[in-house]
Amino acid sequence: MKQTYRSRTAFVLAWVWLAFVAFNVWDLIVRFNGKPSLVALAVLGALTALVYAVALRPATVFTEEGLVGRNPFRTTFLPWAAIEDVTVSHAITVQYGDERVLRLWTPMSSARERAKAQRRGTATEQRGRFKTEPTLPRAEQAAVEAFAGKTHADWVGDQIRERAESARRRGEEAAPARLSWSYDAIGVLVAAVALVVAALVIP
How far is CA 87 from CA 25, 126, 151, in A? Predict the structure, then answer.
């Protein structure tokens, strides 16, 4: 089963931006007045290409066969058994092959989110000392303990590590990684550049 992880905030804001752009493009076409409209369209196109590349496209995808890292202009597929190590700081870094590294764009953890997670972990450790605190059901307590001191990026990093170790225990072959260009993001960028050129050239 496929699981996709991305920045929810960036994803939602990107779609809000697209709705804003759609309305403005319609308005500029209806009230087209030459050069000013072309310049406005070029600016909207350039910003939309940027939003698509850094907010809509990036994702970390789990499949049965391996990990798919979708970055702004590249897609990398790593079979689970090919993953050698996973580290998490601001972003998730996956080591594979001959010391090659894949840096995942999502999910990321900000300093504020990590500080909040650490406070949550400290609070969890102190829970048993105060008799007046309510006792959580066993399932909820297990979930709190699993996430104590961890950000979403930490949790996803753990999942990648566990799947890689499981694949190696099953004796799966560490097939080579597959890298490909993101033709959709490149196409959006080319279209934005074409709009900018048209705004500059057409009088």
Answer: 43, 28, 13
Q: pLDDT tens-digit profile of 84-141? A: 999 998 899 999 988 899 999 998 876 566 666 566 655 544 445 544 455 556 554 5
Predicted TM-score (pTM) of the model is: 0.78
Reported in sequence order, the residue ranges of the chain that DSSP labels E, i.e. its strands, are 3-5, 59-62, 66-70, 74-79, 83-88, 92-96, 100-104, 178-181
**Other CB atoms closer than 10 Å to residue 52's CB: what's the count?**
21
Q: 98 exposed, middle or buried (CB, 10 Å; 0-12, 13-18, 19+)?
A: exposed
Give Cα 110 to chain centroid, integer Å: 13
Instruction: Tell me the residue type at 180.
Output: S
Q: How far is CA 96 from CA 5, 78, 90, 171, 179, in A?
A: 20, 8, 19, 17, 13
CB burial of residue 41 (10 Å; 0-12, 13-18, 19+): buried
d(CA 53, CA 56): 6
